[in-house]
Specification:
Blueprint: H1 2-16, H2 23-30, H3 34-37, H4 40-50, H5 54-74, H6 77-90, H7 100-108, H8 114-128, H9 139-148, H10 156-162, H11 164-182, H12 190-209, H13 231-244, H14 250-266, H15 275-280, H16 284-297, H17 300-303, E1 307-308, E2 327-328, H18 330-344, H19 349-371, H20 386-399, H21 405-426, H22 431-446, H23 456-466, H24 468-474, H25 478-484, H26 489-514, H27 516-535, H28 540-557, H29 562-568, H30 594-610, E3 614-620, E4 641-646, E5 649-654, H31 655-662, H32 667-678, H33 689-702, H34 708-734, H35 740-743, H36 759-779, H37 787-803, H38 810-814, H39 819-822, H40 833-840, H41 848-859, H42 868-881, H43 884-887, H44 893-915, H45 917-923, H46 926-939, H47 945-948, H48 951-979, H49 994-999, H50 1005-1011, H51 1013-1045, H52 1051-1063
Antiparallel strand pairs: 1-2, 3-4, 4-5
Helix pairs in contact: 4-5, 5-6, 5-7, 6-8, 9-11, 9-12, 11-12, 11-13, 12-14, 13-14, 14-16, 16-18, 16-19, 18-19, 18-20, 19-21, 20-21, 21-22, 21-23, 22-23, 23-26, 25-27, 26-27, 26-28, 27-28, 28-30, 30-31, 30-32, 32-33, 32-34, 34-37, 37-41, 42-44, 42-46, 44-45, 44-46, 44-48, 45-51, 46-51, 48-51
Pfam families: TPR_Trm732 (PF25150)
Protein name: tRNA (32-2'-O)-methyltransferase regulator THADA-like TPR repeats region domain-containing protein
Domain tRNA (32-2'-O)-methyltransferase regulator THADA-like TPR repeats region: 540-851
C-alpha cells in the first residue's frame, strides 16, 4: 500500500508541480544582450521556464543540456562564464530534483572550462546553503548527493570535495531547524522526513569519501556558527539530538547511526558534554540504531580488540552481566549481550524485526572476524559461551512463528550464521563435540512438530551439516510427518524447501554408500512410501497440495521413480508378462482400494504432464478396439486398456480407471484428471478417439457441479481445450491433410479402429465431437434445467463462440476457402429462431448470471430476436421510473406512459395469438412483457405521487390489462384442454431425466428442432398464463391497498374487486 501511495504522490507531484524559477533569475535572463540571448542554450532555457509541469520539463531539459554542451565546446570564456551560472543554478532551485540526472550528466561529459564550473559551484553552495541562504532547506546537500551519484564523476569529485564543508554546514543547519520544530511536539511531514534521510546519507558519503577535509578543523568556516565549534562536533551534536527525538522515523535513526559510527570511527571527536550520559538517555530504538551504526562503520579490528574491564570502569553499566571474565571486547562483551536483551524484551513486532536485523549484522561480523583470525578463543577468553549460545537459540526458537515473514527470514539467517560460528569455533576441539552440539539443536527443532512452518528452513540447514540419514535416525517418521503437514497451506512452501534439500542429501548419501543402482533402490524405499500414503489418504486438500508442491520436487530429483510408483498401483509397462516387483516396496505393507489407486494415478499423470514427462496423447492400447458411430461416439468398451508414453516407454492403464477418475466424487480429482487427459501444455496435437470418448463421459456429471471454484476451473479447462483444438485443426487444413467440408456430410457408421487411425480420422472424430458438444451444451439450456447445469453450459457456449464465431466476418464470407467456414462446428439449426427460443427464457430469469450469459449469447446470433430491443428499452425505462428522480416528481406521466406501452405491446401479441397461435408462439415474447409488468407493479409505490396524480388513467390501464388477461386465459385453457387427451397415465414419466433427455438428442439439430415445435407451441401459452396469474393477484393486492390508504376505497371498487375474483 505504501508503494502505491508513493507512486500516486510521485505522479501527482510531476503533474501539478514544476521547477520554480525566482523572479530575479528570469529578470537576469531577460537582461542579456540580444546576441547572447539568441544562443540555442538560452532559447531552450526560456522555453523551459514557460513549462508548468515536471513531466514537460523532464522532456525539455534534455534540449537545454544539449545546448549547454554545445556552448562549452565552441563558446567564448565570457559567454560560458555567464551561462554556467544560469545552468548550475537550475539544480539548486525548488522542485528541480527530477532534472538533476540530465543536468549533471552533461557536466560529467564536459572537458572544457572546468575551473569556471568549479568556482561557480562553490559560490552557489555558499549562496544557497545555511540558514541565511536563499535556497530551500537541504538544497545544497541534495545537489551534492546527485553529483556523487553520477556514474562518471570525473572532475566533479574535486568540486564536491572542495565544497564538502559547505555542504555539511547546510546539512547541519537544516537538520537543526527540523529538530527545533519537533521540540514543540510537531511531527515532520513525510516529505521533510525523506529530505532528512537524504541529507544524512549525503553526510555519511562525505565522511567516507573525503575524511581528510574534516580533520584539524578547529573553527567553523562560516559565520553562521560559533568559532569554537568543530564541524565534526556539530555533526555529532545534531545526530545525538535526532537520536534523542521521538519524532523521527526509523529510517532516519538508521542513517544517523551510520553517520555517528562513521564520525567516531575516523577520529576522536571533541565533545564538550557527557557523551555516555547522552547515550544512556536514548530511547531503546535509538540505542539499537547506534549499535547498528557502530557495527557498520567501525572496523572489525576495533570491535575485536580485547581489553580488561571491571565493573567500576563502566560506571555501573555492564551489558554482559552474567560474565565474570574481565577480558572483554566491544563485539562480544558489549554489543552481543545488549542485542540479546533487546530481542528478549521487545516492545512490539516492528522493534523486534529491527532488533533481529541488527543481531544478524552482529553475527555476520562475528563470523567474518573469526574467518579473519580476529577474536579467536583462547584459554582465558571464550567469545561465545554455552550460556550465550543457548540464549541465542532461545531467541531463534521464539521467533520462528512470528507473523511477519521478513522477521522469520532474518531468524533463518541468524540460525545459519550461528551454526557457521559454532562449527568454526569448536571444530578445532574435535568433530564429535560439534556433532553433539548440532544433534542437540536438531532434537530441539524436531520437537517443535511438523505443523511449525518456521522449523523447516533451519532443519534443511542442519541437514547439510549432519546428513539426511542422521536426521532420519533421530526421527524415523520425519518424512511421513512432513507429508501429512501438507494439509496446512501455510506449511507448504517451507516444507517444500526442506524436502528439496533433504531428498537431495539423502540421494547423494545413498549413492555414496551403496552405489548408484542400489543407492536408488534404498533412496526410493525411504522417500516413496510417505508420498504414496499421502496421495492415497483420501484427503482432497492434502492430495492437491502434494501435487502442487512436493511431488514435482520428488520427480525432478529422480524422474525414474515414476515407474515404481505406477507399478505400486498395478500400472505396468506395455509388454510386461508378469507384474514387476520393486525392491523399494518390499517392506511396505499397504493394500490399496481401487479409489486410492485412481487417486494416485491422477496425481502422477498431472505432475507428469506438468513436467512434460508424458509424450503425446493417451490412446487405446493396440489390442483394444472400439466401435464408433459417426459423430455420436456412442459404443465404447471401457473394460480394455489405454496407453501413454513416459520417457519413450509405453505404460498401460485400465480405461475404466480413467472413467472413474473423471466421475469421482472428489471435485478436485475430477478436474485434475480432466486437465491431465484433455490438455497437453507442450503441444497442440489432435486429441485421440479415447480422449474424446472420455470427455463425453465426463460432460454430464461435471456440468451440474454446485461449486463455483469447480465451475471456473472447468470453464478454464475448456477454454484451453478449444484453443488446442482450433490450433490443431487449422494446422491440418494448412498442411492439406484434411478438408472438413468434404467429410462432414458422411453419416455412415465407421469400422472399428485401433491405434492405427490416421490423422484424417482423428480430425474427423474431433470435428464431429465439436458438433456434438455444441448441440449438447445448447440442449442443456432447456427451460427447466437446473441453474448449475444451465450457467455452466452457457459459459462454455460463450467460450466456444469466442473461438468459433457463429457469424463469420464479411471477409470470411467472401473467402470460400476460409478456415473459419471450414471449422464451423455448429449445425444449421443451431441459430434458427425456433432454437433461439431456448435461450430467450433465461433473459428474464431471476438469476443475474443467467440473464447476462444468455443475453451475451443471443447478441452473437445471426438471426434477429423479435422484440429483444423493445424489452431492453422497457427494462431501461423501468429502472429509470423507479429511481429517485421519478419518485420525487409530482407528475405521473412517466409511470402511466410506461405501463401503457407495456399493455399496448401485450395487446398486439394477444391479437396475433388469436389469429394464429402456432406462429405467434414462435415469435412472441409475451411472457417477458408479463414478467416485466410483474416486477414493475411489485416495485412501484402505489401511495406515491406517481400513482396518485394519475389514478384515473392507471385505473383505465388496469381495466384494459384485465381484459387482456382474460383473453390470454382463454388461449391457455384451450391449449391445455386440447392436449389433456395426450397426457400419460403415470405423471412420473414426465420428471426431468438428463440421461433420457440427452439420449434422444440427435447430432443433427434439424430433427430436434422440428420435434420441439409442438413443445414450444404448448409451453408458450402456459408460461404466459403462469406469469399473468401472478401479475393479476399482485395488481389486485396492491391496487386494493393503494385505494384504501388513499381514502378512495368505495363500494363500487369493492364490488369490482369481487367481480374480478368471481370471473377468475
Amino acid at each position: 500500500m505504501s508503494a502505491k501511495w508513493r507512486a500516486l504522490q510521485h505522479r501527482h507531484r510531476y503533474t501539478y508541480s514544476a521547477v520554480i524559477f525566482p523572479q530575479s533569475y528570469i529578470e537576469a535572463l531577460n537582461l542579456l544582450p540580444i546576441d547572447a540571448s539568441s544562443c540555442k542554450f538560452y532559447t531552450e532555457l526560456k522555453e523551459l521556464i514557460t513549462l508548468n509541469s515536471t513531466y514537460a520539463q523532464v522532456n525539455h531539459v534534455k534540449k537545454v543540456a544539449s545546448g549547454f554542451g554545445d556552448l562549452l565546446v565552441s563558446g567564448e570564456e565570457g559567454l560560458v562564464s555567464e551561462a554556467v551560472r544560469f545552468y548550475l543554478e537550475i539544480i539548486f532551485l525548488e522542485n528541480s530534483l527530477p532534472l538533476h540526472k540530465t543536468l549533471v550528466s552533461a557536466l560529467a561529459k564536459n572537458r572544457n572550462f572546468q575551473s569556471v564550473i568549479r568556482n561557480c559551484f562553490r559560490l552557489l553552495c555558499d549562496e544557497y546553503g545555511g540558514l541565511k541562504g536563499k535556497g530551500k532547506r537541504f538544497c545544497v546537500s541534495r545537489v551534492a548527493l546527485s553529483m556523487m551519484s553520477s556514474p562518471k564523476l570525473g572532475y566533479l569529485v574535486e568540486i564536491v570535495e572542495e565544497c564538502a564543508i559547505l555542504v555539511s554546514l547546510d546539512i547541519v543547519s537544516g537538520l537543526n531547524y527540523v529538530v527545533s520544530e519537533t521540540s514543540d511536539w510537531s511531527r515532520p511531514s513525510p516529505t521533510v522526513m525523506e529530505q532528512c534521510q537524504e541529507a544524512l546519507s549525503c553526510s555519511y558519503y562525505l565522511l567516507q569519501r573525503f575524511p581528510s577535509k574534516f580533520i584539524d578543523l578547529n573553527s567553523s568556516p562560516n559565520d553562521l556558527f560559533e568559532e569554537d565549534l568543530n564541524i565534526l562536533e556539530m555533526i555529532l551534536t545534531t545526530i545525538l539530538s535526532i537520536l534523542k527525538s521521538l519524532a523521527f522515523s526509523r529510517d532516519c535513526g538508521c542513517r544517523s547511526e551510520l553517520l555517528c559510527g562513521s564520525s567516531n570511527a575516523m577520529m576522536k571527536v571533541p565533545y564538550k558534554g557527557d557523551l555516555f550520559s547522552e547515550i544512556h538517555s536514548f530511547s531503546v530504538l535509538s540505542r539499537l540504531c547506534l549499535i547498528r551504526g557502530i557495527l557498520t562503520a567501525v572496523s572489525r579490528t576495533v570491535l575485536n580488540a580485547r581489553f580488561v574491564a571491571s565493573m567500576d570502569d563502566l560506571s555501573g553499566f555492564h551489558a554482559d552481566a552474567g560474565s565474570s571474565n574481565p577480558v572483554q571486547t566491544i563485539l562480544y562483551g558489549g554489543i552481543l549481550p545488549e542485542l540479546c536483551n533487546y530481542c528478549e524484551n521487545h516492545t512490539d513486532s516492528h522493534f523486534n524485526f529491527h532488533a533481529l536485523t541488527v543481531m544478524q549484522i552482529c553475527l555476520q561480523q562475528i563470523k567474518t572476524s573469526i574467518l579473519a583470525n580476529l577474536g579467536n578463543p583462547t584459554e582465558d577468553y571464550d567469545p561465545i559461551s554455552e550460556d550465550m549460545g543457548a540464549r541465542i537459540l532461545r531467541i531463534i526458537w521464539n521467533n520462528l512463528e512470528d507473523p511477519l515473514s521478513q522477521t522469520v527470514k532474518h531468524v533463518h539467517l541468524i540460525f545459519d550464521l550461528f551454526l557457521d560460528i559454532q562449527s568454526t569455533l569448536h571444530w578445532a576441539k574435535g568433530s564429535e563435540r560439534i556433532k553433539l552440539c548440532l544433534e542437540k539443536i536438531g532434537s530441539d527443532l524436531l520437537r517443535l512438530g511438523p505443523r511449525c512452518k518456521g522449523r523447516y528452513i533451519p532443519l534443511a540447514s542442519l541437514t547439510k551439516r549432519l546428513g539426511a540419514k542422521t536426521i532420519l535416525d533421530m526421527s524415523p517418521d520425519l518424512l511421513f510427518e512432513t507429508v501429512k503437514a501438507y494439509i496446512d497451506d501455510e506449511v507448504c512452501c517451507a516444507s517444500t524447501s526442506f524436502l528439496k534439500c533433504f531428498l537431495e542429501c539423502l540421494r547423494d548419501e545413498c549413492w555414496s554408500s551403496d552405489g548408484v543402482e542400489s543407492g536408488y533402490a534404498i533412496y526410493r524405499g525411504f522417500c516413496l512410501p510417505p508420498f504414496l500414503f499421502g496421495l492415497a489418504s483420501g484427503v482432497s486438500k492434502l492430495r492437491s497440495n502434494l501435487n502442487t508442491y512436493a511431488l514435482p520436487v520428488l520427480l525432478e530429483l529422480d524422474v525414474d521413480s515414476i515407474f515404481p510408483m505406477l507399478a505400486f498401483i498395478s500400472v505396468g509397462q506395455v509388454g510386461e508378462e508378469a507384474e514387476v516387483v520393486y525392491a523399494e516396496f518390499s517392506c511396505t505393507d499397504m493394500v490399496l482400494k481401487v479409489e486410492q489407486q485412481v487417486a494416485i494415478l491422477v496425481s502422477l499423470l498431472k505432475v507428469s504432464r506438468l513436467l512434460a514427462l508424458i509424450e503425446g496423447d493417451i490412446d487405446w492400447s493396440e489390442n483394444s478396439l472400439v466401435s464408433q458411430k459417426e459423430g455420436g461416439l456412442r459404443t465404447v468398451n471401457f473394460d480394455c486398456y489405454a496407453f501413454f508414453c513416459i520417457k519413450g516407454i509405453k505404460v498401460r492403464v485400465l480405461v475404466e480407471w480413467l472413467v472413474l477418475a473423471l466421475t469421482h466424487v472428489d471435485e478436485s480429482l475430477r478436474i485434475d484428471a480432466a486437465e491431465s487427459l484433455f490438455l497437453n501444455p507442450k503441444t497442440s496435437s489432435l486429441p485421440s478417439h479415447l480422449e474424446l470418448s472420455l470427455m463425453k463421459e465426463a460432460m454430464p456429471l461435471n456440468l451440474r457441479c454446485c461449486s463455483t471454484a469447480f465451475q471456473m476451473k472447468w470453464t478454464s479447462l475448456f477454454r484451453k481445450f478449444f484453443s488446442r483444438v482450433r490450433t490443431a485443426l487449422e494446422r491440418k487444413i494448412k498442411q492439406g491433410g484434411w478438408q472438413p467440408l468434404a467429410s462432414c456430410d458422411n453419416s455412415e457408421v465407421r469400422p472399428c479402429k485401433g491405434t492405427g487411425e490416421t490423422v484424417v480420422d482423428r480430425a474427423d472424430d474431433l470435428f464431429h465431437f465439436m458438433k456434438w458438444l455444441s448441440c449438447f451444451l445448447f440442449f442443456s439450456c432447456y427451460p427447466s434445467a437446473p441453474y448449475e447445469r444451465k450457467i455452466t453450459a452457457m459459459e462454455l457456449i460463450l467460450i466456444m463462440i469466442d473461438v468459433w464465431p457463429i457469424v463469420p466476418s464479411l471477409q470470411e464470407k467472401c473467402d470460400s476457402v476460409s478456415s473459419e467456414l471450414s471449422l464451423y462446428p455448429y449445425n444449421k439449426g443451431f441459430t434458427l429462431p425456433d432454437s433461439t427460443l431456448l435461450l430467450v427464457g433465461s433473459i428474464i430469469d431471476s438469476w443475474d448470471r443467467l440473464r447476462e450469459s444468455s443475453f451475451c449469447i443471443l447478441l452473437r446470433f445471426p438471426t434477429p430476436l423479435p422484440e429483444l430491443h423493445v424489452m431492453l428499452f422497457t427494462s431501461s425505462s423501468r429502472s429509470k421510473m423507479l429511481n429517485g428522480d421519478y419518485q420525487n416528481c409530482t407528475s405521473g406521466s412517466p409511470a402511466i406512459e410506461y405501463v401503457r406501452s407495456l399493455i399496448d405491446w401485450l395487446h398486439l401479441v394477444v391479437e396475433e395469438g388469436e389469429k394464429d397461435l402456432s406462429e405467434a408462439c414462435k415469435k412472441s415474447f409475451a411472457h417477458g412483457v408479463l414478467l416485466t409488468l410483474h416486477y414493475t407493479f411489485e416495485e412501484l409505490d402505489w401511495n406515491s405521487n406517481i400513482v396518485l396524480s394519475s389514478i384515473s388513467e392507471m385505473r383505465h390501464a388496469l381495466e384494459k390489462l384485465l381484459e387482456l388477461v382474460m383473453r390470454i386465459t382463454s388461449l391457455a385453457l384451450w391449449v391445455v384442454s386440447a392436449d389433456a387427451w395426450y397426457l400419460p397415465e403415470d405423471m412420473d414419466d414426465m420428471v426431468d431425466d438428463d440421461g433420457a433427455f440427452l439420449s434422444e438428442v440427435s447430432v443433427e439439430m434439424d430433427v430436434s428442432v422440428s420435434a420441439s415445435e409442438h413443445e414450444v407451441k404448448n409451453s408458450k401459452p402456459i408460461r404466459m398464463w403462469d406469469h399473468q396469474n401472478r401479475l393479476l393477484w399482485l395488481v389486485l393486492a396492491r391496487y386494493e391497498r393503494g385505494e384504501s390508504s388513499s381514502g378512495n376505497y368505495h363500494k363500487k371498487n369493492s364490488f369490482a374487486y369481487f367481480r374480478i375474483i368471481k370471473v377468475w
